[in-house]
């Protein structure tokens, strides 16, 4: 995905089965756990482009969070801080080829950052 595209949306829920049934019936989303991501059921929209995950709701995560594709999380974190934002979660590795972090804008709205590839590089 190009820089700046929303690449993933996490939805905090209290019950994976109930919420999964709700979203599948409402939007036709396919929801399943992927190997290596147990306890993090991922959804994909019928267009096979949009997607995200259902994640456990807690006191610090009560609203859906969009993740935006960036060329460099390090650069994006520096730019967020330089422009009045804050870092909520520092850069963390997802796979060998992907990372995430969370920033908040000056109004406190949280956005996730995503850098990397979702598939293994071609040989």
Automatic annotation (TrEMBL):
Pfam families: Glyoxalase_6
Signal peptide: none
Boundaries of every VOC domain copy: 5-116
Gene3D superfamilies: 2,3-Dihydroxybiphenyl 1,2-Dioxygenase, domain 1 (3.10.180.10)
PANTHER family: GLYOXALASE-RELATED
Name this polypeptide is given: VOC family protein
Organism of derivation: Microbacterium rhizosphaerae
